[in-house]
Amino acid sequence: MFIVDTSKPATIVIGATGVASKLQQVRMVLTTIKGTVPLDRTFGLSMTFLDRPLPHAMAEYTGEAIAEVQAQVPGVTVEKVDFTPDTVGAVDGRLYPVVTLSIQEGV
């Protein structure tokens, strides 16, 4: 099991391979707004969950994150999506997803 925590910054490693590459690809999918990649307007999350009540936003994000990660990153299965408890951020409507993955080696 591997975890991608979007509440913490990460660096991009050019030439990453194996598990590091897969984790980097997943982070890229989760942090890219759909329509912002010039040659692939379907890449990323649509962000339709923005400005929804938190329970609805969490459910929509979870469904979209699972679908997009599994469609865009071969060999990765999303096991679960949790959200970092942040009472201060939650008051401001901020969600910090933590995605747990399993990665199939060699795919």
Report on the structure:
The structure is a single chain. This protein is 36% helix and 18% strand. Strands 1-3-2 form a 3-stranded antiparallel sheet, with helices on one face. Helix 1 packs across helix 2. The model has no long low-confidence stretch (mean pLDDT 87). The chain has 3 helices and 3 strands, in the order E-H-H-E-H-E. It is globular and about 40 Å long. It has a single domain (2-103), classed as Nuclear Transport Factor 2, Chain: A (Roll), CATH 3.10.450.40. The two termini are 16 Å apart. By secondary structure, it is α+β, with helices and mostly antiparallel strands.
- Main β-sheet: number of strands, strand sense, barrel status? 3 strands, antiparallel
Question: Please, how many helices?
Answer: 3
CA gyration radius, whole angstroms: 14 Å
Total tally of structural domains = 1
**How large is the share of residues in beta strands?**
15-25%
Strand order of the largest sheet: 1-3-2
The CATH topology comes to Nuclear Transport Factor 2, Chain: A
Q: Tell me, what is the CATH class?
A: Alpha Beta
Q: Unreliable segments (pLDDT under 50, ≥5 consecutive)?
A: none
Could you state the order of secondary-structure elements as H and E? Answer: EHHEHE
CATH-defined architecture? Roll
Distance between the termini: 16 Å
Mean pLDDT: 87
Q: What structural category arises from helix and sheet content?
A: alpha+beta
The percent range for helix content is 25-40%
What is the number of strand segments? 3
Shape: globular
Brief summary:
This protein has 107 residues and is an alpha+beta fold.
